[in-house]
Amino acid sequence: MTNPSSGVPRYTGLIDRYRDRLPLQPGTRAVSLGEGDTPLIQLTDIPLLRDREVLLYVKYEGLNPTASFKDRGMTVAVTKAVEDGSRAVICASTGNTSASAAAYAARAGMTAFVLIPEGKIALGKLAQAMMHGALVIQIKGNFDAGMALVKKIADEAPVTLVNSVNPYRLQGQKTAAFEIIEQLGDVPDYHCLPVGNAGNITAHWIGYCEYSCAPGDETTDACAYCQGNCALLADKVVADRPKMLGYQATGAAPFLRGEMLDHPETIATAIRIGRPQSWDQAWSASRESQGWFDELTDDEILVAQKLLAEGEGIFCEPASAISVAGAMRDIERGKIEPGSRVVCTLTGHGLKDPDTAIQQSTAPITVEAEMDAVNEVILQNMK
Length: 383
Ligand SMILES: *Cc1c(COP(=O)(O)O)cnc(C)c1O
Fold this sequence. Notes:
By secondary structure, this protein is α/β, with parallel strands linked by helices.
């Protein structure tokens, strides 16, 4: 449909936009809420970036329909589930997958079953899953325990598993890399992401490989990812790929320890995962891109979250802020060279986790409803 005043087609979601690179039947109608097409915002308030002449952009995935990047994968996974005749979806979740699955299932007229760790899910995410009418099952265990359960259930019951082990999730999520290349007009030098289950870093790597692959490139490792999609478009979009940098919270950092963990802990509940499902794929992305993994403490995560909110006007959830915390430290240390172009994915919106936001902010000031009282406070606090 075209807007009569501008002639610009109405944006109708990432399946319509990237259908020629997604594994769907030609006639299948997208189950979409208009996901994707999120802004790429340059950070402008941080002196370190000016000193090092680093251009740092954030891809604000919190502006997706359910306020996290999970919608990119969910639109494709649920569209495919409908195409296959499925009537129910199931997932384990630290919160955002359940919110997204619940919304897209509602949109498709399907049932959503979601398993969440009792007491360890941010309030906004729980509200979303409940409000969209999912059947919410709290387990007395963590995400990894829930993941093991839903894999078994989906093997036996007629429900479609929509965690990122579902390959259509990653296919949808790869479109974030396409958008970044289109928005920048080129590839960034570095791409920084929080790593939990490691699906998203894997999906971005697939996307970057696809856009740097062309027919005739069959000998390159990029080609191993693009599954022939490049042949549809005949030419590579860009020549290079970024280095992929994955950041984990110190208490939940299996990639730093080199092995799976049993008791992950971090305030960033979205990445409170000890047994990443895309373990091998994420190691490949890191190695092939010549990137690295690193870890940050909960305090460092919260400092970055506050810096983004107060200094730049961008409110993301704690897990998202680790990408900026990690990038800033690596810029400071010179691991990311001066003059680099860096993209950090802000995976989810800050409103997801109001408790953490309120705890680290100054409490409101209460005064009488009188001019004098209000004026006094204003004069004392003028910047
Ligand atoms: C799911 C999620 C992550 C982690 O992504 P993985 O693909 O599991 O590595 C990070 N941040 C937020 C906000 C998320 O919802």
